[in-house]
Design a protein that fits this description.
Layout (H helix, E strand, L loop, with lengths): L5 H11 L11 E5 L2 E4 L4 E4 L2 H4 L8 H11 L12 H13 L4 E5 L2 H19 L6 E5 L8 H5 L4 H4 L9 E4 L4 H7 L4 E6 L2 E2 L5 E2 L2 H14 L2 E5 L23 E4 L10 E5 L1 H4 L15 H14 L2 H24 L3 E7 L2 E6 L3 H11 L1 E2 L1 E3 L3 E4 L7 H21 L1
Helix pairs in contact: 3-11, 4-11, 12-14, 13-14
Amino acid sequence: MRAMNTQELIELKNNVLLGNYARPDFVLTHGKGMYLYDADGKEYLDFVAGIAVNAFGYGDERTMQVLHEQAAKLWHCSNLYHNEPQVLLAQFLTERTFADKVFFCNSGTEANEAAIKFCRKWATLNRGPECMQIISFTKSFHGRTYGALSATGQTKLQDNFGPMLPGFAFAEFNNLESVQKLVNDQTCAIIAEPVQGEGGIYPATAEFMQGLRKLCDDRNLLLVLDEVQCGFGRTGKFCAYEHFGVEPDLATYAKPIAGGLPLGAVLLKDKIAAAIKPGDHGCTFGGGPLTTRVALDILQRIAASQFLAAINEKSGYLQNKLRALQAQFPAIKEVRGLGLMIGVELTIDPAQLIAACYRQGLLICKTGSNAVRLLPPLIVANKHIDEFTGKFKAALSALETTT
């Protein structure tokens, strides 16, 4: 089969793929370390990491070795049967986190769908079938399927897809009083992101998270934390909830868990797990031996104290660089974030800056209504941050010249 050039491939894509993604006019072909390369050989410094997925960048030799070894043994057998990597990964997660039990699926959306079901099953058994309301937050994002989308506090994502599922109410993020006003006898759970990712990179305050925990304890509610984007090292802690001095009853994970292989997880305490019986929920591919074997190696490496400490050091270095640029460029309104999950609020159209960065050989992506986010692979070094700063500055300067 003849290899196609960029234009030919994009033209074919327009004919055969659903147009639900807005993509730039280049085709990525391979990557190494912190860099991606397109079909024309252009190099891009990656500050997206597959949207917080590629924790160890591209072509990581250890990950490839683990992948190849497991692929040669067994990569799928379904959840009709036991497999060792799944059990070992669950053991690691329960030993390293608040959780007593783990459920595996394929994605963050699926993890949130499962968490919603688990909360409502627990509430039906312990509080009564009328207890089904879940409180979420404005600007939140929990996924694209109907349960997860119904829990998402962004109406622009729900437009033309209604009706949404009933039983969800929305409070203001970081405003505990707004949550308290919504709690009633039908409320069974509160779901929150410790750092709102798609909503604009807004970290929760410790007071807010601690207030949610106390409210749930006082009213016999479940606290669900969506750590799909912010979990497993991204914020400088293994789990984001560790920043706030609280533990959830359930938490959802995906993104970096298996280095780009499809895997999601719900971590939960025994009191919720006791409500779930065989046949209540399932997943054909979730927790297969290939993805869980790779995930175990990746998470063990992320959880190392030195690795996490380095993330915090690099976060401080990057944020200092950004604030220096903020003093130079009026286009930067605010810099915020936690760890290597950073949002840059803009006074200009984010799409213009993203396109200008492409021209400089830099990958960043949009978040919220008027911000870009920086989610570099967790292996980013200060030299890469210096390179990023130069490219980002050049992109901002080019926009100033043309506007």
